[in-house]
Amino acid sequence: MIIGSHVKMGAPDFVAGSVKEALGYGANALMLYTGAPQNTRRRPVEELHIPEARQLMAENGIAPEHLVVHAPYLINPANSVKPEVAELAVEFLQSEIERTAAIGARYIVLHPGSYTTTDMETGIATVIAQLNRLPEIPAGIVICLETMAGKGSEVGYRFEQLQDILSGLREPEHFGVCFDTCHTHDAGYDLDDFDGVLAEFDRIIGLDRLKVVHLNDSKNERGARKDRHANIGEGKIGFEILNRIAHHPQFVTTPVILETPYVDDKPPYGREIAMLKAGGM
Question: At residue 270, does pLDDT exceed 60?
Answer without folding.
Answer: yes
